[in-house]
Design brief:
This protein has 344 residues and is α+β, with helices and mostly antiparallel strands. It contains twelve helices and 14 strands. The protein is elongated and about 145 Å long.
């Protein structure tokens, strides 16, 4: 082969090599342009999600107190147990320890730990951190959150009046719902940052916004009177073999409600185990005609103003009396009776 022919082959190879290298660098630059310029926001956000996380700082819910300051609804510390399934080192062991602590099956927790997500709740409102082995385990995928939980120290007493909250401490009924805005408070916020070994610290670039606790509410209810009314109402309903009973005690001079009770009652700490009909505050939701229980007030007014005397005769309309479009009927058809007999 001649020298000229070898030179041409070498030049051709060189051109091909230069072209291939040029194409490689063009493709590389184009890909870098796509990653750093076109998709910059997308990949920056993805990276930020890996090393930065916002957490909510819960606000203490305001207490509900009786007239003397006794707390009828207050807060206790509870713990929420969560996990990052993609970081859990030993899922079967974690599931076993959770099953031992919270009386659910290992399969239940394994299903949660096998989800393709970075966050899942394993258990909420665990009452005491130190009593469970699961809280003592050192696993980078476990997340333990300390929160406030609603607690009613007197259990069923005044339950219908106070109402109850959901697992996130949002009011669902009673005073808890009516004064949700005042009791709730304002949640805070903090931004956490992870370094290479996944150690956590506050991100100094974002100011820590502390939570503002809710307002305490003081009622006209008297705990001692409420207790007596609840006990006596239960006795009365049981003695009469009635389906239910209601009672309200008021201060006759000011109209203040000192006690409000329903029977049967329920424990707002475990409200999910009761039927909706049991949790309804019938003293303010159900409508009843006052009937004979109210005639003593009319009679007292007539006697006080000397309009009638106990011996005066009253016509009882034969047990039926119409007011506008509504007809009231007595349990018996009475004709003429003395005022004394009417009261009797």
């Amino acid at each position: 082969m001649s020298i000229n022919k070898q030179s041409k082959i070498s030049a051709t190879r060189l051109y091909i090599l230069v072209i291939l290298l040029s194409l490689f660098w063009i493709i590389l630059e184009a890909n870098l342009f796509r990653l750093q310029i076109i998709n910059n926001d997308l990949f920056s956000a993805a990276a930020k999600r890996q090393y930065e996380k916002k957490i909510v700082l819960p606000a203490r819910r305001g207490a509900i107190c009786d007239r003397k300051g006794n707390k009828l609804a207050t807060n206790v510390i509870h713990y929420d147990l969560a996990a990052d399934p993609k970081m859990i080192e030993n899922k079967r062991l974690i599931a076993k320890k959770c099953a031992e602590a919270f009386s659910k099956s290992e399969k239940y927790y394994l299903n949660k730990l096998n989800q393709k997500t970075h966050f899942v709740y394993l258990e909420r409102r665990a009452p005491a951190k130190g009593n469970y082995d699961i809280f003592k385990m050192n696993d980078n995928g476990l997340i333990i959150g300390e929160n406030f939980g609603r607690y009613y120290p007197y259990h069923s007493y005044a339950a219908h009046l106070l109402g109850f909250t959901d697992p996130d401490d949002n009011g669902l009924s009673g005073l808890e719902l009516q004064y949700e805005k005042e009791l709730k408070g304002v949640e805070g916020e903090a931004v956490l940052q992870y370094d290479g070994p996944r150690r956590v610290f506050y991100n100094a670039d974002y100011p820590l916004r502390r939570a503002e606790q809710g307002m305490d509410i003081y009622l006209t209810i008297d705990k001692n009177i409420q207790t007596v009314v609840e006990q006596e109402l239960k006795k009365g309903v049981t003695k009469a073999k009635a389906a239910s009973g209601m009672a309200i005690v008021m201060n006759p001079f000011s109209g203040e409600v000192l006690a409000m009770a329903n029977y049967p009652s329920f424990n707002p700490n475990r409200h999910k185990y009761y039927k909706a009909s049991v949790k309804r505050n019938k003293t303010i939701t159900d409508v009843f005609e006052p009937g004979s229980t109210f005639k003593i007030f009319s009679a007292a007014a007539l006697l006080q103003e000397q309009i009638k005397k106990p011996e005066d005769i009253v016509y009882c309309e034969n047990g039926s009396y119409k007011v506008y479009n509504h007809r009231f009927r007595d349990s018996k058809k009475h004709g003429w009776l003395s005022l004394r007999r009417v009261i009797e």
